[in-house]
Amino acid sequence: MASISAAGIGSGLDVKTIISQLMTLEQRPLVALQQKEAGFHAQLSSLGQLRSAVSSYQSAVGALTSSSALETYTATSADTAKFTATADPTAAKGTYDIQVTNLAVAQKQGSSAFADSDTTKIGNVGDKMTLTIGTDSFSVEVGDKTLADIAAAINDASDNVGVTASVLQEDASNFRLVLSSDKTGTANAVTLAFEDAAALPIADPLSMAQIQAADDASFVVDGTYTITRSSNTVTDAIQGVTLNLLEVSTSAVQLDVVQDTGDITSAVNGFVNAYNTLQSTLTGLNNGELSGDSTLRMLQGRVRSILNSPPTGLSGAYSNLSEIGVAFQKDGTLTLDSTALSSAIKDDRNAVADLFANDDQGYAFRLDALLDDILDSDGLISAREDGINSSIRTAQDGIERMGTRLEIVETRLRSQFSALDLLVADMQTTGNFLTQQLDILSNMLPNNRN
Fold first, then answer.
1. DSSP assignment, residue 381?
2. Are 318 and 351 part of one and the same domain?
3. What pLDDT, in 10s, does the model give residues 155-173?
Protein backbone atom coordinates (compact mmCIF):
# COMPACT_ATOMS: atom_id res chain seq x y z
CA MET A 1 0.00 0.00 0.00
CA ALA A 2 1.44 3.45 -0.95
CA SER A 3 2.31 5.73 1.93
CA ILE A 4 1.04 9.30 2.30
CA SER A 5 3.83 11.89 2.48
CA ALA A 6 3.75 15.63 3.23
CA ALA A 7 6.37 18.03 4.55
CA GLY A 8 6.26 18.10 8.36
CA ILE A 9 4.14 15.01 8.81
CA GLY A 10 7.07 12.77 9.64
CA SER A 11 9.03 15.25 11.73
CA GLY A 12 6.29 17.35 13.21
CA LEU A 13 7.99 20.53 11.96
CA ASP A 14 5.71 23.41 10.71
CA VAL A 15 7.46 23.41 7.34
CA LYS A 16 4.75 25.48 5.55
CA THR A 17 5.10 28.37 8.02
CA ILE A 18 8.88 28.20 8.00
CA ILE A 19 9.03 28.36 4.17
CA SER A 20 6.45 31.17 4.09
CA GLN A 21 8.49 33.26 6.52
CA LEU A 22 11.71 32.60 4.64
CA MET A 23 10.06 33.57 1.33
CA THR A 24 8.76 36.77 2.91
CA LEU A 25 12.35 37.71 3.64
CA GLU A 26 13.45 36.70 0.14
CA GLN A 27 10.66 38.83 -1.43
CA ARG A 28 11.75 42.09 0.18
CA PRO A 29 13.79 43.20 -2.88
CA LEU A 30 10.85 42.27 -5.13
CA VAL A 31 8.43 44.34 -3.03
CA ALA A 32 10.86 47.26 -3.20
CA LEU A 33 10.96 47.02 -7.00
CA GLN A 34 7.16 46.81 -7.21
CA GLN A 35 6.85 49.89 -5.02
CA LYS A 36 9.39 51.68 -7.19
CA GLU A 37 7.40 50.77 -10.33
CA ALA A 38 4.18 52.03 -8.72
CA GLY A 39 5.98 55.28 -7.92
CA PHE A 40 7.07 55.66 -11.54
CA HIS A 41 3.46 55.15 -12.70
CA ALA A 42 2.32 57.78 -10.22
CA GLN A 43 4.91 60.17 -11.65
CA LEU A 44 3.61 59.51 -15.17
CA SER A 45 0.09 60.29 -14.01
CA SER A 46 1.34 63.51 -12.42
CA LEU A 47 3.08 64.48 -15.66
CA GLY A 48 -0.24 63.93 -17.42
CA GLN A 49 -1.79 66.45 -15.02
CA LEU A 50 1.07 68.82 -15.76
CA ARG A 51 0.59 68.45 -19.52
CA SER A 52 -3.14 69.18 -19.14
CA ALA A 53 -2.45 72.29 -17.04
CA VAL A 54 0.14 73.58 -19.52
CA SER A 55 -2.25 72.93 -22.41
CA SER A 56 -5.03 74.86 -20.65
CA TYR A 57 -2.63 77.72 -20.02
CA GLN A 58 -1.63 77.74 -23.68
CA SER A 59 -5.29 77.99 -24.69
CA ALA A 60 -5.66 81.08 -22.51
CA VAL A 61 -2.43 82.51 -23.94
CA GLY A 62 -3.65 81.73 -27.47
CA ALA A 63 -6.64 84.04 -27.01
CA LEU A 64 -4.16 86.94 -26.79
CA THR A 65 -1.82 86.06 -29.65
CA SER A 66 -3.79 87.80 -32.42
CA SER A 67 -4.05 91.59 -32.45
CA SER A 68 -6.96 91.47 -34.90
CA ALA A 69 -8.87 89.06 -32.66
CA LEU A 70 -8.51 91.52 -29.79
CA GLU A 71 -9.67 94.47 -31.88
CA THR A 72 -13.32 93.45 -31.90
CA TYR A 73 -16.34 95.54 -32.72
CA THR A 74 -20.06 95.17 -32.19
CA ALA A 75 -22.78 96.39 -34.53
CA THR A 76 -26.18 97.05 -32.96
CA SER A 77 -29.47 97.77 -34.72
CA ALA A 78 -32.02 99.94 -32.92
CA ASP A 79 -34.79 97.78 -34.43
CA THR A 80 -33.83 94.15 -34.96
CA ALA A 81 -37.17 93.48 -36.66
CA LYS A 82 -35.98 95.65 -39.60
CA PHE A 83 -32.37 94.48 -39.77
CA THR A 84 -29.60 92.95 -37.67
CA ALA A 85 -25.89 93.54 -38.01
CA THR A 86 -22.51 92.07 -37.04
CA ALA A 87 -19.03 93.56 -37.26
CA ASP A 88 -15.57 92.08 -37.85
CA PRO A 89 -12.13 93.44 -36.82
CA THR A 90 -11.89 95.56 -39.99
CA ALA A 91 -14.88 97.70 -38.94
CA ALA A 92 -14.60 101.25 -37.71
CA LYS A 93 -16.56 103.05 -35.03
CA GLY A 94 -19.51 104.96 -36.37
CA THR A 95 -23.26 105.60 -36.36
CA TYR A 96 -25.46 105.15 -39.43
CA ASP A 97 -29.12 105.62 -40.26
CA ILE A 98 -30.46 102.69 -42.30
CA GLN A 99 -33.83 102.61 -44.05
CA VAL A 100 -34.73 99.33 -45.76
CA THR A 101 -36.74 100.19 -48.86
CA ASN A 102 -36.97 96.78 -50.51
CA LEU A 103 -36.16 93.14 -49.77
CA ALA A 104 -34.54 90.78 -52.24
CA VAL A 105 -36.70 87.86 -53.35
CA ALA A 106 -36.07 84.82 -55.49
CA GLN A 107 -37.96 84.17 -58.72
CA LYS A 108 -40.59 81.42 -58.86
CA GLN A 109 -42.33 79.90 -61.87
CA GLY A 110 -45.22 77.44 -62.09
CA SER A 111 -46.58 75.20 -64.84
CA SER A 112 -50.15 74.74 -65.96
CA ALA A 113 -52.18 72.12 -64.10
CA PHE A 114 -51.86 68.41 -64.89
CA ALA A 115 -54.08 65.56 -63.76
CA ASP A 116 -51.36 63.84 -61.75
CA SER A 117 -47.64 63.95 -61.03
CA ASP A 118 -46.54 60.42 -61.79
CA THR A 119 -48.62 59.06 -64.67
CA THR A 120 -49.37 61.74 -67.25
CA LYS A 121 -46.53 62.12 -69.77
CA ILE A 122 -45.69 65.58 -71.08
CA GLY A 123 -44.52 66.49 -74.59
CA ASN A 124 -42.73 64.19 -77.04
CA VAL A 125 -39.72 61.97 -76.71
CA GLY A 126 -36.55 64.03 -77.01
CA ASP A 127 -38.05 67.35 -75.91
CA LYS A 128 -35.56 69.27 -73.80
CA MET A 129 -35.73 72.23 -71.40
CA THR A 130 -32.71 74.52 -70.87
CA LEU A 131 -32.61 76.55 -67.68
CA THR A 132 -30.34 79.62 -67.63
CA ILE A 133 -29.18 81.96 -64.84
CA GLY A 134 -26.98 84.75 -66.11
CA THR A 135 -24.46 83.10 -68.43
CA ASP A 136 -24.75 79.64 -66.84
CA SER A 137 -27.21 77.00 -68.00
CA PHE A 138 -28.06 73.29 -67.93
CA SER A 139 -30.58 71.09 -69.73
CA VAL A 140 -32.95 68.24 -68.80
CA GLU A 141 -35.24 65.95 -70.78
CA VAL A 142 -38.93 66.82 -70.42
CA GLY A 143 -40.45 64.95 -73.37
CA ASP A 144 -42.53 61.89 -72.47
CA LYS A 145 -41.83 62.55 -68.77
CA THR A 146 -44.11 63.02 -65.75
CA LEU A 147 -43.95 66.08 -63.50
CA ALA A 148 -42.19 63.96 -60.86
CA ASP A 149 -39.65 62.79 -63.47
CA ILE A 150 -38.90 66.36 -64.53
CA ALA A 151 -38.55 67.64 -60.96
CA ALA A 152 -36.16 64.80 -60.12
CA ALA A 153 -34.10 65.41 -63.28
CA ILE A 154 -33.67 69.08 -62.39
CA ASN A 155 -32.78 68.50 -58.74
CA ASP A 156 -30.39 65.66 -59.52
CA ALA A 157 -28.59 67.34 -62.41
CA SER A 158 -24.87 67.50 -61.65
CA ASP A 159 -24.56 70.78 -63.59
CA ASN A 160 -27.58 72.44 -61.97
CA VAL A 161 -26.74 76.16 -61.75
CA GLY A 162 -29.08 77.01 -58.88
CA VAL A 163 -32.68 75.89 -59.50
CA THR A 164 -34.92 73.82 -57.23
CA ALA A 165 -37.96 71.99 -58.60
CA SER A 166 -40.98 70.69 -56.71
CA VAL A 167 -44.46 69.40 -57.46
CA LEU A 168 -47.40 71.33 -56.01
CA GLN A 169 -50.75 69.57 -55.52
CA GLU A 170 -53.68 71.99 -55.52
CA ASP A 171 -56.30 69.27 -55.20
CA ALA A 172 -56.91 65.67 -56.32
CA SER A 173 -56.71 66.51 -60.04
CA ASN A 174 -54.48 69.58 -60.28
CA PHE A 175 -50.70 69.20 -60.06
CA ARG A 176 -48.12 71.82 -61.05
CA LEU A 177 -44.33 71.92 -61.47
CA VAL A 178 -42.79 74.81 -59.49
CA LEU A 179 -39.28 76.14 -60.22
CA SER A 180 -37.50 78.36 -57.69
CA SER A 181 -34.19 80.12 -58.05
CA ASP A 182 -31.88 79.20 -55.18
CA LYS A 183 -30.68 82.80 -54.89
CA THR A 184 -32.48 86.10 -54.58
CA GLY A 185 -32.04 89.07 -56.88
CA THR A 186 -32.77 89.95 -60.48
CA ALA A 187 -29.38 88.64 -61.59
CA ASN A 188 -30.48 85.17 -60.45
CA ALA A 189 -33.75 85.01 -62.38
CA VAL A 190 -34.21 81.81 -64.39
CA THR A 191 -35.02 81.87 -68.11
CA LEU A 192 -36.38 78.79 -69.90
CA ALA A 193 -36.01 77.57 -73.48
CA PHE A 194 -37.44 74.41 -75.10
CA GLU A 195 -36.39 72.40 -78.14
CA ASP A 196 -37.33 69.09 -79.72
CA ALA A 197 -35.18 66.06 -80.49
CA ALA A 198 -33.90 67.82 -83.64
CA ALA A 199 -32.75 70.80 -81.52
CA LEU A 200 -35.42 73.02 -83.02
CA PRO A 201 -37.21 75.54 -80.79
CA ILE A 202 -40.69 74.45 -79.66
CA ALA A 203 -43.47 75.89 -77.57
CA ASP A 204 -43.29 75.34 -73.84
CA PRO A 205 -45.07 71.99 -73.18
CA LEU A 206 -45.40 72.90 -69.49
CA SER A 207 -46.87 76.36 -70.03
CA MET A 208 -44.63 77.82 -67.34
CA ALA A 209 -45.65 81.21 -65.94
CA GLN A 210 -43.98 83.49 -63.43
CA ILE A 211 -45.43 83.29 -59.93
CA GLN A 212 -42.99 85.68 -58.26
CA ALA A 213 -40.58 88.00 -60.01
CA ALA A 214 -36.99 88.21 -58.81
CA ASP A 215 -36.16 91.45 -57.03
CA ASP A 216 -33.13 93.12 -55.45
CA ALA A 217 -32.72 94.47 -51.94
CA SER A 218 -32.26 98.17 -51.47
CA PHE A 219 -31.67 100.46 -48.52
CA VAL A 220 -30.77 104.08 -47.90
CA VAL A 221 -27.78 105.04 -45.72
CA ASP A 222 -27.92 108.33 -43.85
CA GLY A 223 -30.80 109.52 -46.01
CA THR A 224 -28.44 110.03 -48.95
CA TYR A 225 -26.93 106.88 -50.39
CA THR A 226 -29.17 104.26 -51.97
CA ILE A 227 -27.55 100.84 -52.11
CA THR A 228 -28.87 97.88 -54.13
CA ARG A 229 -27.76 94.27 -53.72
CA SER A 230 -29.07 90.92 -54.93
CA SER A 231 -29.13 89.45 -51.41
CA ASN A 232 -30.67 90.48 -48.10
CA THR A 233 -27.31 89.70 -46.50
CA VAL A 234 -25.03 92.60 -47.38
CA THR A 235 -21.33 92.40 -46.56
CA ASP A 236 -19.82 95.06 -48.78
CA ALA A 237 -21.68 98.28 -48.05
CA ILE A 238 -20.31 99.44 -44.69
CA GLN A 239 -16.70 98.48 -43.98
CA GLY A 240 -16.45 95.44 -41.72
CA VAL A 241 -20.21 95.26 -41.15
CA THR A 242 -22.64 92.58 -42.31
CA LEU A 243 -26.27 93.67 -42.59
CA ASN A 244 -29.13 91.19 -42.55
CA LEU A 245 -32.18 92.94 -44.01
CA LEU A 246 -35.43 91.58 -42.60
CA GLU A 247 -38.28 94.00 -43.20
CA VAL A 248 -39.08 97.16 -45.17
CA SER A 249 -39.08 100.20 -42.89
CA THR A 250 -40.93 103.48 -43.29
CA SER A 251 -38.23 105.42 -41.47
CA ALA A 252 -34.51 105.14 -40.76
CA VAL A 253 -33.20 102.84 -38.02
CA GLN A 254 -29.96 103.69 -36.22
CA LEU A 255 -26.96 101.36 -36.50
CA ASP A 256 -24.16 101.78 -33.95
CA VAL A 257 -20.72 100.29 -34.55
CA VAL A 258 -18.57 100.43 -31.41
CA GLN A 259 -15.34 98.88 -30.25
CA ASP A 260 -15.97 95.98 -27.87
CA THR A 261 -13.82 95.90 -24.74
CA GLY A 262 -15.40 92.69 -23.43
CA ASP A 263 -13.29 90.26 -25.47
CA ILE A 264 -9.90 91.68 -24.53
CA THR A 265 -10.91 92.04 -20.88
CA SER A 266 -12.13 88.44 -20.83
CA ALA A 267 -8.93 87.25 -22.54
CA VAL A 268 -6.66 89.01 -20.02
CA ASN A 269 -8.75 87.63 -17.14
CA GLY A 270 -8.42 84.16 -18.64
CA PHE A 271 -4.67 84.68 -19.00
CA VAL A 272 -4.28 85.56 -15.30
CA ASN A 273 -6.59 82.82 -14.04
CA ALA A 274 -4.96 80.14 -16.20
CA TYR A 275 -1.49 81.17 -14.99
CA ASN A 276 -2.63 80.91 -11.37
CA THR A 277 -4.17 77.51 -12.06
CA LEU A 278 -0.87 76.39 -13.60
CA GLN A 279 1.03 77.61 -10.53
CA SER A 280 -1.39 75.80 -8.23
CA THR A 281 -0.88 72.61 -10.21
CA LEU A 282 2.90 72.99 -10.09
CA THR A 283 2.80 73.52 -6.32
CA GLY A 284 0.57 70.48 -5.81
CA LEU A 285 2.77 68.25 -7.97
CA ASN A 286 5.92 69.51 -6.26
CA ASN A 287 4.39 68.54 -2.92
CA GLY A 288 3.38 65.15 -4.31
CA GLU A 289 4.78 62.58 -6.71
CA LEU A 290 7.03 65.07 -8.56
CA SER A 291 8.67 66.49 -5.46
CA GLY A 292 12.02 67.96 -6.44
CA ASP A 293 11.53 67.12 -10.12
CA SER A 294 13.64 69.39 -12.33
CA THR A 295 10.87 69.50 -14.95
CA LEU A 296 8.71 71.62 -12.66
CA ARG A 297 11.53 74.01 -11.84
CA MET A 298 12.52 74.44 -15.49
CA LEU A 299 8.94 75.04 -16.62
CA GLN A 300 8.21 77.52 -13.88
CA GLY A 301 11.51 79.31 -14.44
CA ARG A 302 11.03 79.69 -18.19
CA VAL A 303 7.46 81.00 -17.90
CA ARG A 304 8.39 83.50 -15.19
CA SER A 305 11.42 84.62 -17.19
CA ILE A 306 9.15 85.66 -20.07
CA LEU A 307 6.65 87.38 -17.78
CA ASN A 308 9.50 89.30 -16.14
CA SER A 309 11.02 90.32 -19.50
CA PRO A 310 9.14 93.29 -21.01
CA PRO A 311 8.82 93.42 -24.81
CA THR A 312 11.25 95.69 -26.61
CA GLY A 313 10.62 97.95 -29.55
CA LEU A 314 6.88 98.46 -29.03
CA SER A 315 5.50 101.77 -30.23
CA GLY A 316 2.44 101.82 -27.98
CA ALA A 317 1.92 103.42 -24.60
CA TYR A 318 2.57 100.26 -22.57
CA SER A 319 5.70 98.15 -22.20
CA ASN A 320 5.01 95.85 -19.24
CA LEU A 321 2.12 94.01 -17.63
CA SER A 322 2.02 96.11 -14.46
CA GLU A 323 1.03 99.15 -16.53
CA ILE A 324 -2.25 97.47 -17.48
CA GLY A 325 -2.99 96.09 -13.99
CA VAL A 326 -1.33 92.64 -14.14
CA ALA A 327 1.25 92.03 -11.39
CA PHE A 328 2.92 89.26 -9.37
CA GLN A 329 1.93 88.66 -5.76
CA LYS A 330 4.27 87.46 -3.01
CA ASP A 331 3.09 83.87 -3.41
CA GLY A 332 4.10 83.86 -7.10
CA THR A 333 0.57 84.12 -8.52
CA LEU A 334 -0.73 86.94 -10.70
CA THR A 335 -3.33 89.49 -9.73
CA LEU A 336 -5.43 91.70 -12.03
CA ASP A 337 -6.55 95.23 -11.29
CA SER A 338 -9.68 95.40 -13.44
CA THR A 339 -9.96 99.17 -13.09
CA ALA A 340 -6.41 99.69 -14.33
CA LEU A 341 -7.01 97.29 -17.25
CA SER A 342 -10.24 99.06 -18.27
CA SER A 343 -8.49 102.41 -18.13
CA ALA A 344 -5.60 101.12 -20.23
CA ILE A 345 -7.97 99.68 -22.85
CA LYS A 346 -9.91 102.93 -22.98
CA ASP A 347 -6.76 105.03 -23.35
CA ASP A 348 -4.97 102.87 -25.96
CA ARG A 349 -6.63 99.59 -26.79
CA ASN A 350 -4.20 98.82 -29.61
CA ALA A 351 -1.23 99.23 -27.27
CA VAL A 352 -2.77 96.72 -24.84
CA ALA A 353 -3.29 94.25 -27.68
CA ASP A 354 0.25 94.84 -28.96
CA LEU A 355 1.67 94.19 -25.48
CA PHE A 356 0.44 90.61 -25.76
CA ALA A 357 0.24 89.88 -29.48
CA ASN A 358 3.15 91.73 -31.07
CA ASP A 359 5.11 89.29 -33.26
CA ASP A 360 8.35 88.14 -31.63
CA GLN A 361 7.99 90.43 -28.61
CA GLY A 362 4.44 90.22 -27.20
CA TYR A 363 4.05 88.34 -23.93
CA ALA A 364 1.47 85.95 -25.37
CA PHE A 365 3.46 85.47 -28.57
CA ARG A 366 6.60 84.44 -26.66
CA LEU A 367 4.71 82.31 -24.14
CA ASP A 368 2.83 80.49 -26.89
CA ALA A 369 6.11 79.60 -28.60
CA LEU A 370 7.59 78.39 -25.30
CA LEU A 371 4.55 76.27 -24.43
CA ASP A 372 4.62 74.76 -27.93
CA ASP A 373 8.18 73.62 -27.29
CA ILE A 374 7.29 72.25 -23.85
CA LEU A 375 4.29 70.30 -25.16
CA ASP A 376 6.05 69.11 -28.31
CA SER A 377 6.57 65.38 -28.87
CA ASP A 378 10.27 65.84 -28.08
CA GLY A 379 9.77 68.67 -25.59
CA LEU A 380 10.43 68.99 -21.88
CA ILE A 381 7.47 66.94 -20.64
CA SER A 382 7.84 64.21 -23.26
CA ALA A 383 11.55 63.84 -22.45
CA ARG A 384 10.70 63.36 -18.77
CA GLU A 385 7.97 60.86 -19.67
CA ASP A 386 10.42 58.92 -21.83
CA GLY A 387 12.86 58.75 -18.94
CA ILE A 388 10.20 57.46 -16.55
CA ASN A 389 8.94 54.90 -19.06
CA SER A 390 12.50 53.65 -19.42
CA SER A 391 12.73 53.31 -15.62
CA ILE A 392 9.41 51.43 -15.59
CA ARG A 393 10.68 48.96 -18.19
CA THR A 394 13.87 48.44 -16.17
CA ALA A 395 11.86 47.84 -13.00
CA GLN A 396 9.53 45.44 -14.81
CA ASP A 397 12.50 43.48 -16.15
CA GLY A 398 13.93 43.29 -12.65
CA ILE A 399 10.57 42.16 -11.24
CA GLU A 400 10.33 39.45 -13.87
CA ARG A 401 13.86 38.18 -13.20
CA MET A 402 13.37 38.30 -9.46
CA GLY A 403 10.05 36.46 -9.75
CA THR A 404 11.81 33.66 -11.62
CA ARG A 405 14.58 33.55 -9.00
CA LEU A 406 12.05 33.42 -6.15
CA GLU A 407 10.29 30.47 -7.77
CA ILE A 408 13.64 28.65 -7.88
CA VAL A 409 14.38 29.59 -4.25
CA GLU A 410 10.99 28.38 -3.07
CA THR A 411 11.39 25.10 -4.96
CA ARG A 412 14.85 24.64 -3.42
CA LEU A 413 13.59 25.38 0.09
CA ARG A 414 10.72 22.95 -0.27
CA SER A 415 13.14 20.28 -1.49
CA GLN A 416 15.56 20.96 1.34
CA PHE A 417 12.88 20.92 4.03
CA SER A 418 11.38 17.77 2.56
CA ALA A 419 14.79 16.09 2.88
CA LEU A 420 15.19 17.50 6.39
CA ASP A 421 11.72 16.27 7.27
CA LEU A 422 12.63 12.75 6.11
CA LEU A 423 15.94 12.88 7.95
CA VAL A 424 14.35 14.02 11.20
CA ALA A 425 11.61 11.43 10.79
CA ASP A 426 14.25 8.70 10.27
CA MET A 427 16.19 9.92 13.27
CA GLN A 428 13.03 9.93 15.36
CA THR A 429 12.26 6.38 14.22
CA THR A 430 15.79 5.26 15.04
CA GLY A 431 15.61 7.03 18.41
CA ASN A 432 12.34 5.35 19.22
CA PHE A 433 13.79 1.96 18.28
CA LEU A 434 16.83 2.49 20.46
CA THR A 435 14.67 3.61 23.34
CA GLN A 436 12.59 0.42 23.03
CA GLN A 437 15.72 -1.75 22.94
CA LEU A 438 17.15 -0.05 25.99
CA ASP A 439 13.89 -0.55 27.82
CA ILE A 440 14.02 -4.28 26.96
CA LEU A 441 17.63 -4.62 28.10
CA SER A 442 16.83 -2.72 31.26
CA ASN A 443 14.01 -5.11 32.06
CA MET A 444 16.34 -8.12 31.55
CA LEU A 445 18.81 -7.01 34.21
CA PRO A 446 18.69 -9.00 37.52
CA ASN A 447 17.76 -6.07 39.63
CA ASN A 448 14.72 -5.53 37.50
CA ARG A 449 13.43 -9.11 37.77
CA ASN A 450 10.62 -9.92 40.10
1. H
2. yes
3. 999 999 999 999 999 999 9
The pTM of this model reads: 0.59
pLDDT-derived band at 68 (thresholds 50, 70, 90) equals low
Q: What's the chain's Rg over C-alpha atoms?
A: 45
67 and 80 inside one domain: no
- Are 251 and 368 within one domain? no
Show the domain range for 156: 108-212
Domain count, the chain: 3
How many CB atoms are closer than 10 A to CB 344? 22
Report helix angle 380-444 to 294-307, nearest 10: 160
Q: Assign 380 to helix, strand or coil.
A: helix
- Sequence-ordered list of residues with C-beta below 8 angstroms from that of 226, at least 6 positions apart, any chain: 101, 218, 219, 220
Give residue-wise pLDDT tens across range 243-257. Answer: 999 999 999 999 999
Residue 50's nearest CA partner among 382, 392, 388, 390 is 382
Do 400 and 376 share a structural domain? yes
Give the count of beta carbons closer than 10 Å to the beta carbon of residue 163: 23
Whole-number Å distance between alpha carbons of 242 and 249: 18
